[in-house]
């Protein structure tokens, strides 16, 4: 080995998370306890995205595998230049480094189908061609600010309508926002127009994360419920106004401005009205989840 101990320290970041467009600074600290001949030292920053899944096939081997791996970040830096091809005395030495995260990087991600991960690798080689390697991971989040887009700042109104029999009608008018960030609380105003007083059990709104996986040989998609809220205090009235809200947990922002993403993440609010004796009424409202809190206009006027 070239070194006895190697430590890589990253500066800044928020709880170890770094955003696209950030400039990351750090330092490498090496300790040598005896004299050694150094042949080469370099620092690499890498990002890998990969996906794999299988599907039944009508022919042998009856299972088709879809998989791909590609490098999304590859930065090499010469560190400790003064030590290259030198015999280094025992001691502790440090070197500073910095690099920028491109704007179109995919965020760190992991599930049963795909993985996106980032690492910093310190590598050295001595005069006997023996390599030493030290690896640390770091987390990347895509920086997404939608405050400049008006439609994400103002409340939007949606209508859901259902007819029962020949004449009985039910109308839900829902007001909410289409854009928000993690940890924001999203309000809802639901106006029920129910002149025939059809029995309604509850109104539910769920934030759904939709993931599209794209590899060169195929396509796959999945979705899951991130969080959910319900309103159950529904009265037997011809018209009722229901006020409730949904607190958004920490999630990966929507995929925007990424070229051919292998993992494409989007979101929707799934609105559902449950009736006592009838099939439910539901719709999906596409929404955008940002990394910067959205400065919404006034909701209640």
Automatic annotation (TrEMBL):
<dbReference type="InterPro" id="IPR014756">
    <property type="entry name" value="Ig_E-set"/>
</dbReference>
<dbReference type="InterPro" id="IPR050357">
    <property type="entry name" value="Arrestin_domain-protein"/>
</dbReference>
<dbReference type="GO" id="GO:0015031">
    <property type="term" value="P:protein transport"/>
</dbReference>
<dbReference type="InterPro" id="IPR014752">
    <property type="entry name" value="Arrestin-like_C"/>
</dbReference>
<dbReference type="InterPro" id="IPR011022">
    <property type="entry name" value="Arrestin_C-like"/>
</dbReference>
<dbReference type="Pfam" id="PF02752">
    <property type="entry name" value="Arrestin_C"/>
</dbReference>
<comment type="similarity">
    <text>Belongs to the arrestin family.</text>
</comment>
<dbReference type="InterPro" id="IPR011021">
    <property type="entry name" value="Arrestin-like_N"/>
</dbReference>
<keyword id="KW-0716">Sensory transduction</keyword>
<feature type="domain" description="Arrestin C-terminal-like">
    <location>
        <begin position="166"/>
        <end position="294"/>
    </location>
</feature>
<dbReference type="GO" id="GO:0005737">
    <property type="term" value="C:cytoplasm"/>
</dbReference>
<protein>
    <submittedName>
        <fullName>Jg12979 protein</fullName>
    </submittedName>
</protein>
<dbReference type="Pfam" id="PF00339">
    <property type="entry name" value="Arrestin_N"/>
</dbReference>
